Amino acid sequence: MKRSRGPSLRGAWPLLLLPAQAALMVGLGRLVTGPAARRSPLADEGSAGRDLVERRGQVGNGVSEFFSLLASTQVVIGVTLVCVVGLLVLPRLPLRTEALFLGASVAVQSAVFLFVTALVDRPRPDVPHLDVAPPTSSFPSGHTGASVALYGGLAVIAVLRMRGSWRHAVAGALLLVPAAVALARMYRGMHYPSDVVGGLLNGAATLLIVGFALLHGRESLPERARAQRPGPAADPRTEGPVIVVRHPHGCPDELADRLGAVLRGHGHRNVRWILTSAERACGSLAEDLTAVRPALVVVCGGDGTLRACADVLAGSGIPLALVPCGTGNLLARNLGLPMDPVAALDESLAGDSHGIDVGRVRGDGLAPTRFTVMAGVGFDAAMVRDASPRLKSRMGWAAYVLSAVRHLNDPGVRLTVRIDGGRRRRRRARMVVIGNVGTLQGGLPLLPAARPDSGRLEVVLFDPQGAAGWFTAAGHLAWRLLGRGVPAPTGAGGVNGTGPQTGRSEAGGALEYFSATRIDIRCAAPQPRELDGDAVRDGVRLTVEVEPGALRVYLPRVPGAPAAAEEAGAPADRAAPLPAAPGPTP
């Protein structure tokens, strides 16, 4: 299996131009301090500096000091380090090439500057200085060159990586900083006009060379999005590479061979396989996406593997095909996929692309992440946490039933729940489940109003009182399983005039339901927590928000339904509407 690589340097030959840049700057400096120094316009530079001194005032002094500080050595180094770390850590996919571009641009500009000042000796202007003059030549302006490399480099990254037309406004604002720094350095008596022009040229040449070496051929996000919109006759699933993320136990080699044959049968020849591990639930998917944008990602695993992959893919526009190879496979069941892995992949590849919601979650001791199925606090999380791995491998989801029996007598917990920023409601509950889909194993509809493309999440608080409460709740859910329960509300409203923030109670108060785009849970004591069937660290807080349509998934086409691109009046790049969710039939 090939290892993913960092930023590619195969096209780094333009870096060979850096010695030429340094030589050119030295030659320009010798010209400025030699034959051209006594000729116009360089011979008149001194008077320009004296004119600026005569116009100094309190406001000008303060503004010039601010911009001069923005380009000082300490600030440039500090801002560069912060931005490089931010590019590697903050985005969902680390922007390694952009981070290397920014750091290299600042470093290279500084190196050329020091080389030039060692060979060109030009004194500072003979006017009062507002700053302490560093022991370097006045030509070129180091502050000006550094500001071009740093803030100009950030402007390039903004154009490449930001979305929306306002990215140009951000880039324009950043490009104004070097101009302001140049004026500030002349105003403060630190440089001649030709010095700041030299600094601008040095910084611009550095950005051009380093940018061409590292960023040439990388499209901006809006351009990439336009380029990847399939035309009416195009099938994006067969026009690019495919990455297959495979759980080694859920999807053994023999099954992988059969899935590979299905991919080849649908026209996919460029396939890269990635193995997951206990430490890396999605393998090297995040790293691989920095090197290549696949036409499709196939996930062969359970809900945990899918959750890790969805956390990487959400919002990227890269479609996903789900191959159920896990214990529960709740998302696959709720989306109506066959439980046979080969059939699921074959039918999905012949189907259409759909946008489904994901939940974004954070909490104490829990790094921000996403889920596709459910997040739980309390009883269900304890059941997931304590299920025997050996029994899960032998019995499948039935192992959770045995684990649940052990926690039937667990006490409830006092908590507060806040729906869409409304008032906090005090409750006591055995568990809280927040779902993007609503059907559990065995077809049990715990959250009957949940739909993965609704743009909302459904919430249930479960608190049966004593044995009678357990029997009432179980009977209520069983009745619903048979399709004879009260129809669940649809959309944002409730039943009988109740809205999502009002909630509704069922089974004698054992079940209380809400619908929301944001849910805040605060428990009085640390509780078990789970995401898509994976136990996470115990805690007292959980905040969940919906990301509507953030994940594209290929699903089997409903018999008799037109293809997504063939829908009457539908744009070719729009995902097909999600088929009706499976559920009990009355």
Give the termini distance in whole angstroms. 50 Å
Overall 3D geometry?
elongated
Question: Low-confidence parts lasting 5 or more residues at pLDDT below 50?
Answer: 1-10, 219-234, 486-499, 564-576
Q: Strand-residue fraction?
A: 15-25%
Largest sheet: 15 strands, mixed
Query: Given the helix and strand composition, which structural class is it?
Result: alpha+beta
Number of strands: 15
> C-alpha Rg, in Å?
31 Å
Helix share, percent: 40-55%
- Average of the residue pLDDT scores: 83
> How many DSSP H or I helices?
18
Can you offer a commentary on this structure?
The chain has a 15-stranded mixed β-sheet that branches. With 586 residues, it is α+β, with helices and mostly antiparallel strands. A hairpin with a 4-residue loop joins β12 (504-506) and β13 (511-516). It contains 18 helices and 15 strands. The chain starts with 17 loop residues before the first helix and ends in a 31-residue tail after the last strand. The protein has helices spanning 18-33, 45-54, 58-70, 73-89, 96-119, 142-161, 166-187, 193-215, 221-227, 253-265, 285-291, 303-313, 330-334, 341-349, 379-386, 389-395, 398-405, 466-481; strands spanning 242-246, 271-275, 296-301, 320-324, 352-363, 366-371, 374-378, 413-419, 424-429, 431-435, 457-462, 504-506, 511-516, 518-531, 534-555. Helix content is 40%, strand content 19%.
Highlighted features:
15 strands; 586 residues; 15-stranded mixed β-sheet
